[in-house]
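Q: Convert this sequence to structure tokens.
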Amino acid sequence: MNSRLCWGAATIVILALAHPASAQLRQSRPLQRSGSPAASQRTSDSLGRARLENEIRRVFAQAVRKRVGLSETQMSQLGPIATRYEQQRRQLQVEERDTRLSLRGALRNEQTADQKQVDQLMQRMLDIQKRRLQLVESEQRELAGIMTPVQRAKFTALQEQIRRRVEQMRQRRMQLFEAETDAPGPARRPARRPL
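A:
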């Protein structure tokens, strides 16, 4: 499994509770074919990703039913809630990543760093953390409408376990990316002098 496919699969795990009808709709869509090798590779990647996502959804839904003890009605109510909040959570992650990268760029040279820009970026980081807390509180209120407190605690623990795994994968990927971008180019051998 290539790293891009693995990452795509990991991020979809939290969305695994999406309504089964949407998964069936994605499976039933005809694929457009193109004669180019690049298009064939994209189609192959898409097929592999779709199969993997559907398998992850199935396995995760089974885990939720078994470990959390949700009924079919609860599962159908949970799907849209989980999808909506995960989309918002991903948006916050993107904003946080972009802000961290901007901050790192601004601090590259501390002597010439723009103090006002650094202050604004730090404030943006705080705002993102506040929004993340508000998101968790809002999600828990909605979950309380369809789950018992024990079910909610079990579901939240399962979500957190998956998020930790996804975050570990994200950090490993980021470290690899940073190592590749920070590494000097290929070392050149000094030219040999004729004897």
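The chain has one domain: 3-27+38-106+114-178.
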